[in-house]
């Protein structure tokens, strides 16, 4: 199965779910309150656009393969991931400096991984 779950975490700690398509290496942009909602929606997502200026920096997690995460931007009001749906570049680790750290996906689990898992198990 190439479509897997992922999630974003806003800076205030709010977590929302999305899906990640492993074959194309890209997230569908729509954000959902729950894992179940995310996994049951067939996303038409390419068309989702943010019409406001409320984008925020988020951390994005994909459970594809052994899991990895990176930084992107999302709009809470529009409920979409707006930037870096496709984590660009190869997965590098360890990182040499902060700018690499920003731009490249990191293998493994972000700090909020278990918080997200608890939400799935509810
Ligand atoms: Zn927006």
What is the topological layout?
Blueprint: E1 3-10, E2 15-21, E3 26-27, H1 35-40, E4 55-62, E5 68-75, E6 80-83, H2 98-103, E7 106-107, H3 113-121
Antiparallel strand pairs: 1-2, 1-4, 2-3, 4-5, 5-6, 5-7
Bound molecules: zinc ion.
Overview of the molecule:
This protein has helices spanning 35-40, 98-103, 113-121; strands spanning 3-10, 15-21, 26-27, 55-62, 68-75, 80-83, 106-107. With 122 residues, it is an alpha+beta fold. The protein has one domain (3-121). Strands 1, 2, 3, 4, 5, 6 and 7 form a 7-stranded antiparallel sheet that branches. A hairpin with a 4-residue loop joins strand 2 and strand 3. The longest helix is centred in the C-terminal third of the chain and has 9 residues, at 113-121. The radius of gyration is 13 Å and the shape is globular. Bound molecules: zinc ion.
Structural Rg? 13 Å
Strand segment count = 7
Poorly predicted regions are: none
Basic shape? globular
Helix content: 10-25%
What ligands can be seen in this structure? zinc ion
- Report, as a whole number of angstroms, the end-to-end distance: 23 Å
What is the averaged pLDDT score? Answer: 86
Strand content: 25-35%
Enumerate how many helices there are, as a single number.
3
Overall number of structural domains: 1
Structural class: alpha+beta
SSE topology string: EEEHEEEHEH
Report the major sheet.
7 strands, antiparallel
């Amino acid at each position: 199965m190439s479509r897997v779950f992922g999630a974003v975490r806003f800076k205030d700690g709010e977590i929302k779910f999305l899906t990640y398509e492993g074959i194309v290496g890209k997230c569908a942009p729509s954000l959902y309150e729950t894992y179940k909602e995310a996994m049951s929606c067939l996303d038409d997502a390419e068309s989702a656009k943010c019409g406001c200026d409320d984008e925020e920096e988020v951390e994005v997690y994909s459970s594809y393969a052994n899991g990895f995460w990176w930084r992107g931007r999302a709009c809470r009001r529009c409920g979409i991931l707006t930037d870096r749906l496709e984590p660009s570049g190869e997965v590098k680790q360890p990182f040499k400096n902060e700018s690499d750290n920003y731009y490249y996906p990191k293998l493994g689990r972000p700090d909020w991984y278990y918080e997200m898992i608890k939400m799935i198990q509810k």
